[in-house]
Specification:
By secondary structure, the protein is mostly helical. The protein contains eight helices and no strands. α2 crosses α6 and α5 packs across α8. The chain starts with about 30 loop residues before the first helix and ends with a helix. The N terminus is likely disordered.
Length: about 200
């Protein structure tokens, strides 16, 4: 079972309970080693996976479910991972695909949930108003556009790594990023015009 103690410091202050991954009882030294390796890798990754899923899904409960689904799938396919050094990218891709599947099943735009974790902005934006503008602008992006923005500008991955993690070509990632940033700029400009007219 994944140690929930690793989830302390969860952005909303509570420890999500959806991460308890049910795994079959194992016997034999190879199975125990497999379980220990999986636990070690997932314990180090769950909070980041939850943060990523929350930013993509824009709903804390849906994010928990997506990460739980991803963890279960990763456990069942763990033997397919040849190099444990690539676990983060492999697991991110599973999390991203779980988010995509849940978004397709909803067939509606994601709703904003108050449990959305605070985003550490690296561009110096510190005011509450700017953060709110960013949240609203991110909410308006399509899930695919939001995903590349989150991976590039909030998680800090290069284009090639994003392409690997989402299973798309680099050109597709660049295109989505271009259009997403254009939409974000337009939202910021509209917010600036609104502030200027209120002064």
């Amino acid at each position: 079972m994944v140690d929930q103690g690793a989830l302390r410091g969860h952005p909303s202050g509570a420890i999500p309970t959806a991460f308890a991954v049910a795994r079959p009882d194992v016997s034999g030294d190879g199975s125990v080693a497999r379980r220990l390796a999986f636990d070690r890798l997932t314990d180090q990754r769950l909070l980041r996976a939850y943060r990523l899923a929350t930013l993509v899904m824009r709903d804390g409960n849906e994010a928990q479910d997506a990460v739980h689904d991803a963890a279960v799938l990763a456990w069942t396919r763990f033997d397919e991972l040849r190099d444990h050094d690539h676990f983060d990218a492999w697991f991110d891709r599973i999390v991203i695909n779980a988010c995509r599947q849940r978004l397709r099943q909803r067939r509606v735009r994601p709703l904003v949930n108050a449990a959305t974790p605070d985003v550490a902005l690296t561009d110096g934006a510190t005011s509450r108003a700017e953060r709110e503008v960013l949240r609203r602008a991110l909410d308006r992006l399509t899930p695919e556009h939001r995903l590349v923005v989150v991976l590039r500008h909030l998680e800090g991955y290069p284009i090639s790594e994003i392409a690997t993690r989402i299973g798309e070509r680099e050109g597709t990632v660049k295109s989505r990023l271009h259009y997403a940033l254009r939409e974000l700029r337009a939202a910021y400009e509209a917010a600036d015009r609104g502030r200027e007219s209120n002064q």
